[in-house]
Automatic annotation (TrEMBL):
Location of the Protein arginine N-methyltransferase domain: 199-362
Methyltransferase domain segment(s): 97-171
Annotated localization: Nucleus
Domain of life the protein comes from: Eukaryota
MF term (GO), any: protein-arginine N-methyltransferase activity
Protein source organism: Vigna angularis var. angularis
Protein name stated in the entry: Methyltransferase domain-containing protein
Length: 376
């Protein structure tokens, strides 16, 4: 089976219900992106001492324009937010908006242009300084106020806001754990009848045939120029790979794992255990599980959002590939049954720990195993 377009990075420092899962088709975002800049993660000043924490490096990474360029050029992502704002001006007209993790301020500018009374753009990285200049250059200083600092530490000049908007999603939805910053802002500043955008997120799972790439990325360590380096293989298989999966590799159904209602959920709800049952749609080999997410804006005139799945247009999030230790030989109609447990890493909450239990009792293959993964 043909391999997906290769991006060999391992992950580094960075629907509603079943009826909405893979059958939900959002309106396509247009190709063009308005000239402006970005939005993203809750970020903050870097400690210039030598003993930086992983969180410091996380914030520092968002101080560089390159990461914002990549996100802005993700037209599925940026154009969807623009469409949500411009096509639903009734939500923003004369409203006070809080943009959490504003990056270069593109969401704040969208909101200002849509008629918001005032927008508070909170950005913790050094990109906040550029955001202020961008706001001034585009003539929105009277509407957009850029506040530099962590959302958990800054003070707003208003007691409540009408809308909280943010692009908080990371790889595997939860990598980098910015969701908690959005929930903190919601609990502290959102008015009782306020709106969180986006307000729904869902995580999905499927299984793929991936012999060639698993051989290249994992089995490679068995024989490196005649030497056994399989100790590295054990580490490599524990690190999920962020890459683009060819939809033709998918050999099972796609299963909804978890739906999050951002307007109501508690911070602890991002840790969960969810069962799955992946039923083979053809006879094939299974080398990996693949996770992806969808986000929805349900307060719009009509449902809007996007999917990061392999059957949708490619985004910078791509998909998350979790290689299995076993090669599963599966026949059409047989099922891989198991559960996935997801939680932030205790030492670094921006990393994600994943435990997968799976079993297959088929005509050609019987296996039961537990595997651990860490996104970092």
């Amino acid at each position: 089976m043909g391999r997906r377009k290769s991006n060999n990075n391992q992950c580094s420092s960075s629907k509603e219900d079943a009826t909405m899962s893979n059958h939900l088709r959002f309106e396509d975002a247009e190709e063009a992106v308005e000239e402006s800049s970005n939005l993203d993660q809750s970020m903050c000043d870097i400690d210039e001492s030598d003993d930086k924490t992983s969180a410091d490096y996380y914030f520092d990474s968002y101080s560089h324009f390159g990461i914002h360029e990549e996100m802005l050029k993700d037209t599925v992502r940026t154009k969807t937010y623009q469409n949500v704002i411009y096509q639903n001006k009734f939500l923003f007209k004369n409203k006070v908006v809080l943009d959490v993790g504003a990056g270069t301020g593109i969401l704040s500018l969208f909101c200002a242009k849509a008629g918001a009374e005032h927008v508070y753009a909170v950005e913790c990285s050094h990109m906040a300084d550029m955001a202020k200049e961008i706001v001034e250059t585009n003539g929105f200083s009277n509407v957009v106020t850029v506040l530099k600092g962590k959302i958990e530490e800054i003070e707003l000049p208003v007691p409540k806001v009408d809308i909280i908007i943010s692009e908080w999603m990371g790889y595997f939805l939860l990598f980098e754990n910015m969701l908690n910053s959005v929930l903190y802002a919601r609990d502290k500043w959102l008015a009782d009848d306020g709106v969180v955008l986006p307000d729904r997120a869902s995580l999905h799972l499927t299984a793929i045939e991936d012999a060639d790439y698993k051989e290249d990325k994992i089995e490679f360590w068995n024989n490196v120029y005649g030497f056994n380096m399989s100790c590295i293989k054990k580490q490599a298989i524990m690190e999920p790979l962020v890459d683009t999966v060819d939809q033709n590799q998918i050999a099972t159904n796609c299963q909804l794992l978890k739906t999050m209602d951002i307007s109501k959920m508690a911070p602890g709800d991002a840790s969960f255990t969810a069962p799955f049952k992946l039923v083979a749609e053809r006879d094939d080999y299974i080398h990996a599980l693949v996770a992806y997410f969808d986000v929805s804006f349900t307060k719009c005139h009509k449902l809007m959002g996007f999917s990061t799945g392999p059957k949708s247009r490619t985004t910078h999030w791509k998909q998350t590939v979790l290689y299995l230790e076993d090669i599963l030989t599966i026949c059409e109609g047989e099922a891989i049954v198991g559960s996935m447990t997801v939680a932030p890493n205790k030492k670094n909450p921006r990393d994600v720990d994943i435990m997968v239990k799976y079993s297959l009792n088929g005509k050609r293959c019987n296996v039961s195993r537990v595997q651990y993964y860490k996104m970092r």
